[in-house]
Amino acid sequence: MVGKLTTHVLDTAQGCPARQMTIELWSVSSNGEKTLLKTIHTNNDGRTDSPLLVDEELKSGIYELVFSVGDYFTKHIENLPQPAFLDRVPLQFGVADPNSHYHVPLLVSPWSYSTYRGS
Q1: Domains and CATH numbers, the chain
Q2: Furthest-apart CA pair in the chain: how many Å?
Q3: pLDDT in tens, 54-70
């Protein structure tokens, strides 16, 4: 099996995929130092066009996805309070087996979010 990292974002306030949301992918060292690996945007299905990491790019360790939900909801929902309750949502997670598929979805509204390890 080819190891890979994928994500998608669902806008639970409007009941649709979160289109054109900016996502940053960071690697986190054992001492907490972060390195930006890439910045990407979701497509019309709320997913990225390709895996975030695949094959030898995916290594054991700690990663962090940072979702720019404040910018997204400011563009898609009128009359939200400013500053936004949620702005940048960081999800830090561990990859133990780089030969596995790690799918990290985000279900989000302007006031709450949840995640899980998907398939």
Answers
A1: 4-115 (2.60.40.180)
A2: 47
A3: 999 999 999 999 999 99
pLDDT at 1 over 70: no
pTM surpassing 0.85? yes
From the annotation, which residues make up the binding site for substrate? 8, 47, 116
Helical (H) or strand (E) element with 81: none
| DSSP label of 75 | H
> Binding-site residues, please?
8, 47, 116
3-state secondary structure the chain: CCCEEECEEEECCCCEECCCCEEEEEEECCCCCEEEEEEEECCCCCECCCCCEEHHHCCCEEEEEEEEHHHHHHHHCCCCCCCCCCCEEEEEEEECCCCCEEECCEEECCCCEEECCEC
